[in-house]
Design brief:
mainly beta; 2 domains; 5-stranded antiparallel beta sheet; 3-stranded antiparallel beta sheet; binds zinc ion
């Protein structure tokens, strides 16, 4: 198979914009996108992007063991979030916050984060992460 830069780039762009598939039959959003709705089995889906949507934190887990080279990133938090409007459920790293500052329902926004760098090729890899919209430091916003 011929390597296609265009296709690679297109898929990267889709990944960075949080491409999902909304079911026209049951209305639920499939993420990652799928050609068959995992909720009702319909094949009638449309492409949507979730990058401009805030999400709320449903649950999370803390990972203390991290891959070599990522020691400065520990501990990592992986959260299950639900986008506010489309109700899509996304598993993603939670960033810019300490584990003890999180609570169920924390409102988050997606950000693009550098995850590693391939020194020789000069390729920098990014991934979507979520961070709190308001940093929870014990104060109330009015
Ligand atoms: Zn469906």
């Amino acid at each position: 198979m011929k390597f296609s830069i265009a296709r690679f780039w297109r898929e990267k762009q889709a990944h960075y914009r949080l491409k999902a598939a909304k079911c026209k039959s049951c209305g639920r959003v499939n993420y990652p996108p799928s050609s068959i709705c995992r909720y009702c089995g319909s094949r009638d889906l449309e492409e949507i992007f979730l990058l401009n949507e805030k999400a709320k934190l449903l649950t999370w887990t803390i990972i203390y063991s991290v891959a070599e080279g990522f020691e400065d990133k520990r501990p990592r938090i992986i959260g299950l979030v639900e986008t506010i409007e489309t109700k899509a459920r996304i598993l993603a790293p939670i960033t810019d916050v300490l584990p003890e500052e999180l609570s169920e329902g924390t409102i988050l926004e997606p950000v693009l984060r550098r995850i590693n760098e391939d020194g020789e090729a000069g390729i920098i890899h990014y991934a979507i992460a979520y961070r709190p919209v308001i940093k929870p430091v014990g104060r109330k916003e009015d």
